[in-house]
Design a protein that fits this description.
Number of domains: 2
GO molecular function: acyltransferase activity, transferring groups other than amino-acyl groups
Region (Disordered): 229-250
Strand content: 15-25%
Number of helices: 7
Largest sheet: 7 strands, mixed
Order of helices and strands: HHEHHEEEHEHEEH
Pfam family, one: Acetyltransf_10
InterPro entries: Acyl_CoA_acyltransferase, GNAT_dom
CATH superfamily of the largest domain: Gcn5-related N-acetyltransferase (GNAT)
Helix content: 40-55%
Number of strands: 7
CATH topology of the largest domain: Aminopeptidase
Radius of gyration: 25 Å
CATH architecture of the largest domain: 3-Layer(aba) Sandwich
Protein name: N-acetyltransferase domain-containing protein
Amino acid sequence: KEELGSPLSRAAKALHEAAAAAHQAASHAAEAWQVFGAPIAAPADVERAAGGADASAGSIAIRAATSADVPAMVAVINEAFMADAFFKVETWYDRTSVPEAEERLQAAGTVFLLAMDSRGQIVGAVCVEWDDSTGHGEFGQLAVANCMQRKGVGQALVKAAEGWCLQQSKGQPYLMQMPLISERHDLFPYYESQGYTRGATVPFAYPAMLNGKYDIKFVMYHKRVGGPAADGRSLGPSGAPPVKPRSPFDDTEAAEALAREDHLLHEEQLRQRLHNRRELEVSYLQYTQVASAVGIASG
């Protein structure tokens, strides 16, 4: 009885754990449906989004992070961003912290998307932001656990980020942008293969992080998401990959047109700010006139 009971007990325990894991997976799939409007966590969908990832990436589910996920998520992000340690001072080796991530998680227009393996472990993350005032999306802190590198997880996260922003834009075409470190040349082809175009180089925003050994800047990459490609196919996250330009001239022309569009957008924002400032000045002038008149009358 004892010899038979022990294996049966272990089998019962294994079945119980499997049932619990299945319940958790179903819960995560429901969360993914709520966030993205479709069960993108389905293995076949993730594999297609990752461009033919191998079987180990086929079981990845993507969902939005909650506060309970933050410590494990931060550990994955900081592990991945040790690749940036060569240009940082040691106190800034960590890319983020639990308090910082929790604060960003609560910010309006911000979501952390997580890649979960079949055991319910976080194996990837990305922070996505949407700016209603500009109609632009941006993502950063894209991280994949070392054990899941080169398996399509990062690409699936990028497509999920694009999909989330497409929901925020209510299906309208929008600009997705992201900053890359100027010395991380190894990353440029990775994003270019997903349709991102190199843009302006701007100063690094956090000079206190730098060890002074490299001239670190941000290289801005951008991509138009949701618009039609040259042959009419969608450039959205669930559509076909973007059609590459037929010539360098076409690529340059598209980049210049995008730059002009952004410039006009910034000009319009500036005009609106000046208009608002003039309204405030007029209101203040009227206020001082009324206050002066009241002061004279009461005197």
